[in-house]
Amino acid sequence: MNTSNTRDRILDSLQAILVNEGYSGVTLEAVARDASVSKGGLLYHFPSKAAMLTGLIERLSALAEEEFREAVEGGEGVVRVFLRTSLPRSPQERELYWAVIAALRGQEDLPEEATRRVQDLFSRWGELLRAEIDDPVLAEIILRAGDGLYMSAIAGLPQPDPELTRRMIDRLAEESDKVRRER
C-alpha cells in the first residue's frame, strides 16, 4: 500500500465532503467510504477526526509556505505575489481554501494548534506586507484587497475581468513601489 497516496486520497475525500456537504457531513465513516479505504485504514493514517482536519491544515500550510518563499525570495515582490496568489490558481486550490474555512467553522473538532496555524498564515501576509511597505494604510488596503479577491473567488462570486484584475494588481504594486522609493 502506498501510504502517502492513501493519506492524500483521505485528505482529498475530506476536502470534497467539506466543500460539498459542509462540516456536518464529515464523519470517519463517510471519509473512509469516499476514499475507498476501510475505517481501520483511515485510522491508521489519522487516528481521529481532529487529526484528519489537522492534516488538511498542514496541506494548506505547505502551499502557503511555498507562496511566502516566493514572495520573499522571488523577484516579483511581496505585493504582487500576495495579490496574485489571493486568487486560487486551480479548482483544487479553491476547494482546499473552501474546505479549510468549513473546517474552521466546526471548531469543536479542530485542535487549537491547527486553528492558530491558520490564523498565523493569514497574519504572516500582513507582516510581510507591512515589512515591505512603510505606509500602514497602503499595506492595509493591499491586505484587504487580497482578502476580498480570495473570499470572492472561493465563494464562487462573479470575478472581475482578468485584465482588470491584472491592472488592479499592477496599480497597487506601483503604489507600494512609490512608497519604497520615497524611503
How does this model look, in words?
- With 183 residues, the protein is mainly α.
- The chain has one domain (49-181).
- 78% of the residues lie in helices and 0% in strands.
- The chain has nine helices and no strands.
- It has helices at 3-21, 28-35, 39-45, 49-73, 78-85, 91-105, 112-132, 136-154, 162-181.
- α1 crosses α6 (91-105).
- The radius of gyration is 18 Å and the shape is elongated.
- 26% of the residues are buried.
- The model has no long low-confidence stretch (mean pLDDT 92).
Topology:
Blueprint: H1 3-21, H2 28-35, H3 39-45, H4 49-73, H5 78-85, H6 91-105, H7 112-132, H8 136-154, H9 162-181
Number of helices: 9
Shape: elongated
Strand content: under 5%
Residue share in helices? over 70%
Alpha carbon gap, first and last residue: 57 Å
Secondary structure class reads mainly alpha
Count of all domains: 1
Element string (H = helix, E = strand) = HHHHHHHHH
Major sheet:
none
Poorly predicted regions are: none
The whole-number mean of residue pLDDT values reads 92
Q: What's the β-strand tally?
A: 0
Rg calculated over all Cα atoms: 18 Å
